[in-house]
């Protein structure tokens, strides 16, 4: 119960990493709001969690309508009188249009970048005065290992996540004197429903060759790092960019091939 008497808001939280964050923060005693466009689904999830004795509520948020970012934050603060933890989990990319530098249309590129950056900028901009007035708070941005490691596709997604990493540091520096911390958590390949449904087993096996821990992460493991930054355990940490990727990108680039060679001996 290390988050008792705290109020948290998690965006895009009806499934996957977002839902795992809601669950973990609520289990640690926080009152947690699920920011979601599909309120019916969010309310179903909230009922399930509340039946376990947790305190979970819902608030409307549609990433395509920028005015709902500020409205969402103000609604939570208005109802609870404070906002201690903001988890910016929303992120989007369309694999059909988010390709490489030559094949990606600029309007598709800038549209993805705009949505992903707005999800951090607008929520933080609204939450910071609230946190400042109450004496502090913690902002946690869910970025991606793709913001550190360039890929052969998803140019807009990777660019936006790299920008979010930098924006995280800027917020941390500009708000530290107000006792507002800002950190980023960067998931690697995580076993969410979306990953399991849309990535073939062949691709997953290929990718796992390059992960030293040699398995996908779980949403709960990402949520564990989010909880660390939400709690006072990280009271002296801000501006940190922490990947939860099983060591992806850490060893030599030919790591996976070397492992194959070793296993063939």
TrEMBL record:
Sorted UniProt keywords: Lipid metabolism, Steroid metabolism
Similarity comment: family membership: Belongs to the short-chain dehydrogenases/reductases (SDR) family.
Superkingdom of source: Bacteria
Pfam families given in the database record: adh_short_C2
Presence of keyword Transferase: no
Gene3D superfamilies found in the cross-reference section: NAD(P)-binding Rossmann-like Domain
Stated name of the protein: SDR family oxidoreductase
Lipid metabolism as UniProt keyword: yes
């Amino acid at each position: 119960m290390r988050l008792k008497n705290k109020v948290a808001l998690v965006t895009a939280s009806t499934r996957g990493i977002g839902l795992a964050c809601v669950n973990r923060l609520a289990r640690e005693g926080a009152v947690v709001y699920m920011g979601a466009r599909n309120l019916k689904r969010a309310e179903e999830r909230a009922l399930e969690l509340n039946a376990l004795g947790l305190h979970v509520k819902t608030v409307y948020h549609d990433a395509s309508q920028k005015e709902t970012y500020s409205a969402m934050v103000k609604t939570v603060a208005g109802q609870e009188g404070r906002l201690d933890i903001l988890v910016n989990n929303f992120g989007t990319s369309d694999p059909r249009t988010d390709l490489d530098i030559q094949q990606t249309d600029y309007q598709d590129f800038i549209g993805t970048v705009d949505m992903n950056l707005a999800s951090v900028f607008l929520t933080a901009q609204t939450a910071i005065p609230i946190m400042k007035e109450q004496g502090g708070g913690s902002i946690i941005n869910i970025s991606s290992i793709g913001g550190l490691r360039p890929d052969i596709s998803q140019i807009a997604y990777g660019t936006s996540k790299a920008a979010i990493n930098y924006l995280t540091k800027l917020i941390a520096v500009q708000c530290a004197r107000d006792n507002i911390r800002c950190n980023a958590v960067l998931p690697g390949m995580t076993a969410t429903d979306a990953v399991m449904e849309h990535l073939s087993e062949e691709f997953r096996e290929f990718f796992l060759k390059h992960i030293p821990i040699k398995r996908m992460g779980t949403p709960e493991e990402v949520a564990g790092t989010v909880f660390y930054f939400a709690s006072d355990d990280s009271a002296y940490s801000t501006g940190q960019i922490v990947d939860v990727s099983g060591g992806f990108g850490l060893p030599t680039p030919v790591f996976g091939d070397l492992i194959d060679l070793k296993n063939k001996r």
